[in-house]
Structure to design on (678 residues):
C-alpha cells in the first residue's frame, strides 16, 4: 500500500483524486474494481501523509513539473495534445468550475469503454462552449480507467489567438472527418457536438430542443473506425447564458456566428459575462455498437440517417427524462 | 552498364551531399551535377555542368549524356547567396521545372524522376485538418510564395507522369529539413538570439534530419527494394511533433510574443536589413504549424527515418550552441531550489 503511494509521477493526480472522492462516491455508485484500484490504496495512506510530508511531496512534484516545463522536456502528440499540462494545470482550473460552481452530476460514465476508441455524441448549448469543457472534465475526473476525451471543435476556435493554443494543448482538434477518424483509429475517445453553432447559439426559448445533427458525418466516421457511439445528454448548460437576443449585424462585423444578448450581457459589462450557477447533469447513455456493419455501410445514406436519428432521439429522450427529474434550475 | 544520374541544383549544400552520397552506389556509373552557379563545395567524382535549367539547353544535356535518372532538387524557397531575389527563385522553381520536364519527355532513356518537394504544399491554415495525408487537398490554396510554387511544380509533375507512364515519378514532400549545416529560413530563424513568436499561437512543427532526407532521396533514386514501391508522392518527416514554445525552451532562447500585425512588420524590417527571411508564408507556418502523416513513407516507400523530430532538433540545437537561457542552467537552478526547499523542514 505504501509502495503504491510513491509512484513518482502519480502524486498530484492521486492527491486530487482523494480530494474529490466523496463527491464522486455519493453521486455515482462506482463498480468495485476501479474503487479498489484507485480509491483503495490512496485512501488509508492519505491521513498518515497529511501534514509536512505530503506538502513536501507535492512541492517536489511541482518543482519537477516546473523543471520539465522550463527545459521543454515534455511530449505532445501529433495533434498538439499536452497530456501533462492538461492533467496538472488545465484540469485543476476546470475542476472547481465543474465541482463547486456547476456541481456537475455525472451519470453512466462507465458506458464509455475502458479501452479502444469511442465517439461520445452530446447536445450543445450555452452560448459559450462551456459544456464541452465540462464534458471533458467529467470524463477525465470520473472515468474509472482514467480516459481522456478528445473534443472536436469548430474552426473558429483555431482562428482565435490564445484559444487556439490552449485548445490544441487540451487535446481538441478541428471537427473534420480526417482528424476524427485518425483519433478513433488510435483508440482515443472522441467527443463531438454535431449541432454545432445551431445548437450553441439557439435562443433561450428553444432550450433543450435538439437541432439538426449536421449531415450525420460523425456516424460514418464512427462506422469507418468501427467505434461505438456513446450518446450523452447535458442538462444545465442551456441556462448559463439565457440568450434572449442576437445582435446579427454586430456578429457579422466581428466575424462571429452570433452575438448573444442576455439579461446581463453586454449591459453589465464583464460582470454580465459570468455564467449563471446552474446545476448540471451529464448523463452518458448505452453505447450503440457500429462494428457489426459491413465496410461499405459508411457510404449508405439511408443507414446514416437512421443511425443519426437513433442517436438524436436517444439524447432528446434522455434530456426530457432528466428535465422531469430536475427539481430546479439552480439546485 | 551503370546508371547515369543527373542532379539539379547542386550548388546547394544538401544537393552537393546527395551527389557525393550517390557516387558511392556501385550501380551508378556517372553523376552529372547541374546548376546555374558553380558549387562552393567539392563534388568529388561527379561532373559539373554549368547550365541554367530555365533554358532549353538542358534538353541537350539530357540527350547527350544519356541520363536515365533525374533527381530534381532545384525547388527552393530562398535564393542561394546573392543569386537574385524572389522572382528569380520562382522562375527557377516553376519555369525550370517546366523546362526540365520538357527535356525529360524528349529523352527516351529517362526511366526515373525524383523531385524534392516540400510539405509547404499543404500550406498552414487554422481550417485545415491537424494532420495532412498525401491525399489531403489543401483547403485554402496558397496565394503566393514558395507554397504556390510547390503546388504548381507538383501540378506539372502530375502532367508529366500522365504523359510518360513509363517513367517512375517519385515526389518527396519533405518537412522542414534541419541538421548541423542546414541553411533553411527556419534554421536562420532558430539562430536569432530572441525568437519572435505570434502571441496566442503555439504551432506544431515537424522536422526531418538532413541525413534522413538524403537517405530518402537515395531510396527514391534507386531501384525499389522487394515489397516496396518508390513511385508516387510521399511525406517525409521525423516521428513526433514539437511545439514552437518547446523548441525555444530546448534551444534556450527566450521568445518575444508579438501581435500578428506587429510580426508582419517586424518580419519586413528584418528582411530589409537582411537578418532573416521572414516571408508571410514563414509567419503562417509559425502561427498555425503543420504536421503530416508518414504512414505511406513507412509502408509503401519502406523508409524508416533514423532521427525523430525531437532528436533532429536536439542535434541542431547542439550545433548552434547554447542560447541566452540554456536549459541545463535552468534545470540546475530548479534543482538547487528543490534542494533548498526540501532541506529546510528537515532541520
Amino acid at each position: 500500500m505504501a509502495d503504491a503511494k510513491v509512484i513518482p509521477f502519480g502524486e498530484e493526480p492521486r492527491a486530487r483524486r482523494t480530494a474529490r472522492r466523496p463527491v464522486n462516491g455519493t453521486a455515482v455508485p462506482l463498480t468495485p474494481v476501479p474503487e479498489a484500484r484507485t480509491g483503495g490504496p490512496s485512501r488509508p495512506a492519505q491521513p498518515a501523509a497529511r501534514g509536512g510530508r505530503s506538502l513536501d511531496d507535492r512541492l517536489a512534484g511541482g518543482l519537477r513539473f516546473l523543471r520539465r516545463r522550463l527545459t521543454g522536456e515534455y511530449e505532445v502528440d501529433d495533434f498538439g495534445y499536452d497530456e501533462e499540462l492538461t492533467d496538472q494545470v488545465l484540469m485543476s482550473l476546470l475542476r472547481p468550475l465543474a465541482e463547486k460552481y456547476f456541481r456537475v452530476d455525472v451519470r453512466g460514465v462507465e458506458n464509455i469503454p475502458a479501452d479502444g476508441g469511442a465517439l461520445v455524441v452530446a447536445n450543445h448549448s450555452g452560448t459559450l462552449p462551456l459544456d464541452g469543457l465540462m464534458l471533458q472534465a467529467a470524463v477525465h475526473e470520473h472515468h474509472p480507467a482514467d480516459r481522456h476525451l478528445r473534443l472536436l471543435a469548430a474552426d473558429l476556435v483555431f482562428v482565435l489567438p490564445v484559444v487556439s493554443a490552449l485548445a490544441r494543448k487540451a487535446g481538441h482538434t478541428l471537427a473534420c472527418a480526417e482528424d476524427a477518424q485518425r483519433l478513433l483509429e488510435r483508440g482515443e475517445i472522441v467527443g463531438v457536438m454535431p449541432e454545432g453553432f445551431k445548437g450553441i447559439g439557439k435562443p433561450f426559448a428553444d432550450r433543450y430542443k435538439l437541432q439538426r445533427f449536421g449531415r450525420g458525418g460523425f456516424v460514418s466516421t464512427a462506422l469507418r473506425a468501427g467505434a461505438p457511439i456513446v450518446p450523452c445528454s447535458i442538462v444545465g448548460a442551456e441556462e448559463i447564458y439565457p440568450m434572449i437576443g442576437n445582435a446579427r449585424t454586430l456578429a457579422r462585423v466581428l466575424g462571429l456566428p452570433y452575438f448573444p444578448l442576455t439579461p446581463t450581457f453586454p449591459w453589465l459589462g464583464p460582470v454580465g459575462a459570468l455564467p449563471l450557477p446552474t446545476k448540471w447533469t451529464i448523463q452518458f447513455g448505452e453505447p450503440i455498437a457500429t462494428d457489426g456493419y459491413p465496410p461499405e455501410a459508411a457510404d449508405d445514406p439511408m443507414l446514416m440517417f437512421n443511425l443519426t436519428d437513433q442517436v438524436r432521439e436517444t439524447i432528446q429522450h434522455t434530456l426530457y427524462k432528466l428535465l422531469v427529474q430536475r427539481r430546479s434550475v439552480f439546485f | 552498364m551503370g546508371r547515369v544520374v543527373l542532379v539539379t541544383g547542386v550548388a546547394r549544400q544538401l544537393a552537393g551531399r546527395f551527389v557525393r552520397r550517390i557516387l558511392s552506389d556501385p550501380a551508378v556509373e556517372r553523376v552529372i551535377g547541374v546548376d546555374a552557379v558553380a558549387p562552393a563545395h567539392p563534388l568529388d567524382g561527379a561532373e559539373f555542368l554549368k547550365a541554367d535549367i530555365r533554358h532549353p539547353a538542358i534538353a541537350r544535356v539530357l540527350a547527350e549524356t544519356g541520363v536515365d535518372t533525374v533527381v530534381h532538387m532545384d525547388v527552393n524557397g530562398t535564393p542561394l547567396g546573392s543569386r537574385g531575389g524572389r522572382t528569380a527563385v520562382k522562375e527557377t522553381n516553376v519555369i525550370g521545372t517546366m523546362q526540365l520536364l520538357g527535356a525529360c519527355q524528349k529523352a527516351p532513356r529517362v526511366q526515373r524522376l525524383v523531385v524534392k518537394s516540400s510539405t509547404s504544399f499543404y500550406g498552414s491554415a487554422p481550417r485545415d485538418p491537424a494532420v495532412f495525408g498525401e491525399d489531403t487537398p489543401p483547403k485554402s490554396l496558397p496565394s503566393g510564395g514558395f507554397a504556390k510554387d510547390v503546388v504548381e511544380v507538383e501540378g506539372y509533375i502530375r502532367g508529366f507522369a500522365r504523359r510518360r507512364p513509363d517513367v517512375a515519378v517519385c515526389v518527396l514532400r519533405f518537412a522542414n529539413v534541419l541538421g548541423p549545416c542546414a541553411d533553411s529560413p527556419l534554421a536562420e530563424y532558430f539562430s536569432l538570439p530572441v525568437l519572435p513568436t505570434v502571441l496566442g499561437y503555439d504551432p506544431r512543427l515537424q522536422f526531418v534530419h538532413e541525413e534522413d532526407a538524403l537517405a530518402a532521396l537515395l531510396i527514391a533514386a534507386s531501384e525499389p527494394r522487394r515489397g516496396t514501391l518508390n513511385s508516387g508522392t510521399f511525406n517525409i518527416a521525423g516521428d513526433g511533433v514539437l511545439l514552437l514554445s518547446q523548441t525555444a525552451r530546448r534551444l534556450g532562447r527566450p521568445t518575444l510574443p508579438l501581435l500578428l500585425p506587429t510580426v508582419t512588420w517586424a518580419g519586413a524590417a528584418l528582411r530589409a536589413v537582411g537578418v532573416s527571411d521572414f516571408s508571410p508564408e514563414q509567419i503562417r507556418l509559425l502561427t498555425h504549424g503543420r504536421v503530416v502523416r508518414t504512414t505511406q513513407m513507412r509502408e509503401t516507400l519502406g523508409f524508416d527515418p533514423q532521427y525523430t523530430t525531437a532528436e533532429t532538433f536536439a542535434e541542431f540545437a547542439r550545433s548552434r550552441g547554447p542560447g541566452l537561457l540554456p536549459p541545463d542552467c535552468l534545470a540546475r537552478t530548479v534543482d538547487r531550489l528543490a534542494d533548498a526547499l526540501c532541506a529546510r523542514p528537515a532541520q
Chain B is about 40% helix and 15% strand. The two ends of chain B are 82 Å apart (CA to CA).
